[in-house]
Recover the amino acids of this structure.
């Protein structure tokens, strides 16, 4: 048996100690790697599951958005179908209108229709807010204002014609009771006019709407704002109406705040003063040219900036 010197045996012990530690360190590293790999595997699995869930959610959201877009498109179609397709042909009257919808479905609507053989009913309204809800209220109100519903024209056997035309003030009172803000969660501004086509006399009531403007043949400009608050406040302020005349050469303009509140890229408002100034400069043009000229001036002012709200303009000249 071979013997080793004592000094060599002393060297062996430390060398054996180092090898054992290295083995333990290696095992620890292996275990750490295994745990790390297991953690990474779990993390990758969870990420993959989350990614699959996200893809599914995105697909569902896309489908829902497509359905919403279809609903909005349908609502826009209904809204535009309520606009006058053919204005009444009246000897001695020149009527024209312009409606341009914004990207968001709004609540603008207007119409001109016969009440009887000698009177026209004229209205313009703007429901608060945007979207399908505003469009639905618009549809409902426009249906209420059809002559056969009994709101704007009532049967009255005692009269010669058998009918009685409801005054603008009373129309506002009836609508205010029918459309309380608490029920519909919205309100609307409105102008309603009854015009006698024989002599140009008319009665008008303004329920919180942009005031009608009359451009007189002699160069004067009148603002018609008599009426009351918006429809939906439950008769908070009594409605009033005023009686006016539209003489030969006069022009009557109705519009919504989509015109005056139009803002360009520099955050400047088109404004009511500018609207009146532009309309006044076009007062001697035919009604259609006057209405279109106002809109074209708006677009030039916007310099390509999109409109933020429905733009409605209705003009009547005698």
């Amino acid at each position: 048996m071979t013997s080793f010197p004592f000094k060599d045996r002393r060297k062996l012990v430390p060398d054996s100690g180092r090898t054992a530690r290295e083995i333990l360190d290696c095992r620890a590293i292996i275990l750490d790697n295994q745990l790390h790999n297991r953690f990474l595997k779990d993390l990758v699995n969870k990420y993959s599951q989350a990614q699959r869930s996200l893809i599914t959610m995105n697909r569902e959201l896309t489908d829902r958005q497509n359905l919403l877009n279809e609903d909005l498109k349908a609502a826009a179609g209904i809204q535009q179908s309520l606009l006058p397709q053919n204005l009444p042909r009246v000897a001695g009257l020149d009527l024209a209108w312009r409606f341009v919808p914004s990207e968001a479905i709004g609540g603008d609507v207007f119409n001109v229709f016969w009440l009887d053989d000698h009177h026209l009913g004229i209205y313009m309204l703007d429901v608060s807010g945007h979207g399908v809800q505003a469009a639905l209220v618009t549809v409902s109100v426009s249906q209420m204002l059809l002559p056969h519903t009994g709101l704007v024209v009532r049967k009255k056997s005692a009269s010669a014609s058998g009918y009685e035309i409801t005054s603008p003030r009373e129309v506002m009172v009836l609508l205010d009771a029918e459309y309380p803000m608490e029920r519909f969660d919205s309100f609307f501004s409105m102008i309603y006019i009854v015009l006698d086509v024989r002599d140009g006399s008319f009665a008008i009531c303004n329920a919180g709407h942009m005031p009608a403007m009359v451009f007189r043949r002699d160069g004067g400009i009148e603002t018609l704002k008599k009426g009351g608050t918006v429809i939906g406040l439950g008769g908070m302020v009594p409605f009033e109406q005023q009686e006016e005349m539209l003489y030969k050469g006069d022009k009557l303009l109705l519009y919504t705040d989509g015109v005056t509140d139009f803002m360009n890229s520099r955050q400047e408002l088109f404004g009511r003063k500018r609207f009146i100034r532009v309309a006044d400069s076009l007062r001697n043009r035919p009604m259609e040219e006057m209405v279109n000229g106002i809109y074209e001036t708006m677009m030039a002012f916007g310099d390509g900036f999109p409109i933020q709200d429905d733009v409605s303009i209705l003009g009547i000249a005698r």
Notes: The first helix runs from residue 6 to 81. The longest strand covers residues 119-127. Residues 1-81 form one domain. The radius of gyration is 37 Å.
